[in-house]
Amino acid sequence: MSVILYGFWRSIASFRVRVALRLKGLAFDEIPIDILSGEQFKPDYEAVNAERVVPTFVHDGHSFFQSLAIIEYLEDIQPNPRLLPAETEERAYARSLALVTVADAHPLVVPRVRNHLANTFGADIRVIEAWAKHWTTEGLATYERLLARRAPAPFALGAEPGIADICIAGQVISAHFLNLDLSAFPAVARLAERCFAIPAFASSHPFEQPGSKAVSAH
Amino acid sequence: MSVILYGFWRSIASFRVRVALRLKGLAFDEIPIDILSGEQFKPDYEAVNAERVVPTFVHDGHSFFQSLAIIEYLEDIQPNPRLLPAETEERAYARSLALVTVADAHPLVVPRVRNHLANTFGADIRVIEAWAKHWTTEGLATYERLLARRAPAPFALGAEPGIADICIAGQVISAHFLNLDLSAFPAVARLAERCFAIPAFASSHPFEQPGSKAVSAH
Question: What does the domain layout of chain B look like in residue ranges?
Answer without folding.
Answer: 3-81, 88-202
